[in-house]
Write a structure and sequence with these properties.
Elements lengths: L2 E6 L5 E8 L2 E9 L9 E10 L4 E5 L6 E4 L18 H8 L24 H4 L5 E8 L8 E3 L4 E2 L3 E4 L5 E3 L6 H13 L7 E4 L8 H24 L4 E4 L4 H9 L6 E4 L2 H14 L7 E3 L6 H4 L2 H8 L3 E3 L5 E6 L3 E7 L9 H23 L3 E6 L6 H14 L7 E3 L7 E6 L6 H5 L15 H15 L7 E7 H10 L1 H11 L2 E7 L7 E6 L5 E2 L3
Parallel strand pairs: 1-14, 6-8, 11-12, 14-15, 18-19, 22-23
Antiparallel strand pairs: 1-2, 2-3, 4-5, 4-7, 4-13, 5-6, 7-8, 9-10, 10-12, 16-17, 17-18, 19-21, 20-21, 22-24, 24-25
């Protein structure tokens, strides 16, 4: 299998990184320099408001809008500020237990390591208190960013988690002997007491020297953060995540990637330097692309990106999936179309659902969909087939770095799931709401508009001293009124002695309506 990481950085306003596996687009990351990316940054913040009913605090952290800090994201170190609160023994055991922490989900500190019993947030904080927070979710719509005091600083092979206070190993490293070896190796490096470290999946086969280098790198960052916290007054940034190119190579590059191709010289040099320092044995896998043909065009990525915004996605050999997004819910419907097998309808549904499950997982990653996702598969009667489709969907989502939770097939044939939302999806960040339909995806028909205008003109004709009513609408609506509703307009004119003038405009949206009413002197009358 040929796997390539393509980095398109020729446009300074936007960086795009694609992971292509056997000419199939598997992952896509897009970041615009005009949109400030603050997820992963650490800030010194100030409590500006406490909502007891939500058990949350709002924090000014210096970016112009306040962040949301829930009690579940408050690290136990802050509990000392709560009078008369004593941590229970079972919580002490939970926090001290060497629980496994899932790779790339270290930001939630693994629920097994958090205390269940917490003091009220109003007993921990007061307005004006300073707090060290990390952005774990970008603001979406009117919602501000979500913050946490459980800090995590990722390196290539390790993750520094100050609140963890021990050495842990990624849950994805399942071999027990490897886990023991890594713990022993980390303890031999004598990490500072009070700080916690997690060995990532990428560190499972690293040498002592490589882990020591990453440990020293993370400690330098932490010391810099501590210095900045002491000397920077008020709300301000104390740690900023690397740019997208370095961040993506750090977090996504594996030995399976045969080649990293970069199409911009300075980005290539940055990425090359990073590889030489952090992963020297893979430094020869990066190449500079300087052909005139755009990189994404050569590898047919642009065609795939164009399809990402489509509501309907065709499946190989027939059938399709339809994706509809709401505010906090995504509905995905599987359609049979012309897909058929030579066997029974049950086998047809089963084979199509297997194909759809793999494509659904890919589309969820590419579109960066989040929140509640409801998958409506073709109905199957066999429980064995239902379990097989569930397993296929789970397996296909294993490469997804976002946290997902999948339920069993419901009696209605639905598979419900949730996916972690860290930032707005690709569609929300790349598109704006349509001013015509306000995001609804539909506008009123010509006939509906004509009936509405008849009602509004009838009402306007009742204004005192009215002699002329000027109606400005789209050309289609004006033509419909003149041809199909002329008699009704004539009746309005005879009943009110007011003349109705229709103006059809070509460069207006379908629901455009402007009604002006005039008296005998030609002066406009304000409609009541």
């Amino acid at each position: 299998m040929s796997q390539k990481m393509l980095i398109n950085a020729r446009q300074t306003e936007e960086f795009r990184i694609a992971v292509v596996n056997n000419k199939v687009l598997e992952d896509l990351y897009v970041e615009r320099t005009t949109n400030e990316n603050i997820a992963g940054n650490i800030y010194k913040g100030v409590i500006v408001n406490i909502e007891q009913s939500l058990q949350a605090a709002f924090v000014d952290f210096g970016v112009g809008h306040n962040g949301f800090l829930h009690i579940s994201d408050v690290e136990p170190h802050y509990f000392k500020q709560a009078p008369n609160f004593k941590m229970r023994e079972d919580d002490r055991r939970r926090m001290g237990r060497g629980s496994r922490v899932r790779d790339d989900e270290y930001d939630d500190f693994s629920e097994s390591g958090r205390p269940r019993h917490k003091p009220p947030i109003q007993d921990i904080f007061q307005k004006g208190d300073e707090v060290l927070v990390q952005v774990i979710k970008e603001g979406i719509g009117t919602k501000g960013p979500t913050l946490s005091t459980y800090l995590s600083i990722p390196g290539r092979y390790l993750v520094l988690m100050p609140s963890l206070g021990r050495v842990g190993v990624s849950r994805k490293i399942e071999d027990e002997s490897t886990r023991r070896k890594l713990r022993s190796l980390m303890n031999s490096l004598n990490p500072p007491k009070g700080l916690g470290f997690i060995v990532r999946t990428a560190g499972s086969d690293r040498t002592r020297k490589e882990l020591a280098t990453d440990l020293a790198y993370l400690l330098r960052i932490w010391k810099s953060i501590v210095r900045r916290v002491k000397h920077i007054p008020g709300a301000n940034c104390v740690y900023e995540e690397s740019d997208m190119i370095i961040r993506t190579i750090r977090d996504f590059f594996t030995a399976d990637v045969d080649e990293i191709i970069v199409d911009e010289r300075s980005a290539y040099e940055r990425a090359s330097d990073f590889l030489r320092v952090i992963m020297p044995r893979f430094a020869d896998r990066i190449t500079y692309y300087d052909d005139r043909e755009p990189l994404f065009t050569k590898y047919a990525v642009e065609e795939e990106i164009a399809k990402i915004d489509s509501r309907k996605v065709a499946l190989k050999d027939g059938g399709s999936i339809v994706i509809d997004q709401a505010e906090a819910l995504v509905a995905i419907d599987v359609n049979t179309g012309n897909f058929r097998t030579n066997d029974s309808p049950e086998e047809t549904a089963f084979q199509l659902n297997l194909r759809a499950a793999k494509e659904i997982a890919r589309q969820i990653r590419l579109r960066d969909l989040g929140g509640v996702i409801v998958n409506d598969f073709i109905d199957m009667t066999s429980d064995e087939h239902k379990r097989a489709v569930e397993r296929t969907l789970r397996d296909a989502l294993k490469r997804d770095r976002a946290k997902t939770k999948i339920l069993k097939t419901s009696p209605f044939g639905l598979i419900e799931m949730t996916r972690q939302r860290v930032k707005p999806g690709l569609q929300r960040s790349g598109y704006r709401e349509c001013p015509c339909c306000h995001g609804g995806g539909a506008v009123k028909s010509v006939e509906s508009m004509a009936l509405e205008i008849i009602r509004r003109v009838t009402q306007a004709s009742q204004e005192p001293k009215v002699v002329k009513i000027v109606v400005e609408v789209s050309e289609d609506v004006a033509a419909f009124l003149n041809n199909m509703k002329r008699s009704q307009l004539a009746k309005i004119e005879s009943d009110s002695s007011a003349r109705v003038v229709l103006k059809g405009e070509s460069n207006v949206w379908p629901e455009h309506v402007k009604i002006d009413v005039y008296n005998e002197a030609g002066k406009k009358i304000e409609l009541s």
